[in-house]
Amino acid sequence: MFLKKNQKNTSPNKSLRITRRVERSQIINFEFNNQLISAHQGETIAIALLANEIRTLSYNAANKTGSGLFCAMGVCQQCLVKINEQNYEACRTHVMPDMKVYSVNFNNE
Ligand code: FES
């Protein structure tokens, strides 16, 4: 299902994932900015957040709307998130059960 810009997903499972004819791995949970997020084992943080309609991953002074997934291959650094006080590319980092992930706010650093 494709959603138009500003259109909210009203499906019961609140996920943008394709559900028909796809077998998914085990569901795991992690936290993003203290919000519980469900993901499938093997997904990257960026894809798990995108599937849950979370697109803003970091903030900086130049981009007041925040930044998120852009190249999806570890080149642009637009998807940086903080895990254990270190920055990681969300598009190249797999979710792990119970991990705590936070937005990077370059305005505060
Ligand atoms: S989206 Fe470009 S590095 Fe992650």
Textual characterization of the structure:
This protein has 109 residues and is mostly beta strands. The chain has one domain: Ubiquitin-like (UB roll). The chain is built from one helix and seven strands, in the order ββαβββββ. Strands 1, 2, 3, 4, 5, 6 and 7 form a seven-stranded mixed beta sheet that branches. A hairpin with a 2-residue loop joins strand 1 and strand 2. 20% of the residues are buried. It binds FE2/S2 (inorganic) cluster.
Helices and strands, with pairings:
Blueprint: E1 27-32, E2 35-40, H1 45-51, E3 58-60, E4 63-67, E5 80-83, E6 86-89, E7 100-105
FE2/S2 (inorganic) cluster binds next to loops.
- The level of helicity is under 10%
- What is the CATH third-level topology name? Ubiquitin-like (UB roll)
Termini separation (Å)? 38 Å
Percent in strands: 25-35%
**Biggest beta-sheet profile:** 7 strands, mixed
Order of helices and strands: EEHEEEEE
In the CATH hierarchy, what is the architecture at level 2?
Roll
Q: Report the bound ligands by name, code or SMILES.
A: FE2/S2 (inorganic) cluster
The total tally of domains equals: 1
Fourth-level CATH superfamily? 2Fe-2S iron-sulphur cluster binding domain, sarcosine oxidase, alpha subunit, N-terminal domain
Specify the structural class: mainly beta
Q: What global shape is seen?
A: globular
CATH class: Alpha Beta
Short description:
The chain is mainly beta and 109 residues long. The protein has one domain: 2Fe-2S iron-sulphur cluster binding domain, sarcosine oxidase, alpha subunit, N-terminal domain (Ubiquitin-like (UB roll), Roll). 6% of the residues lie in helices and 31% in strands.
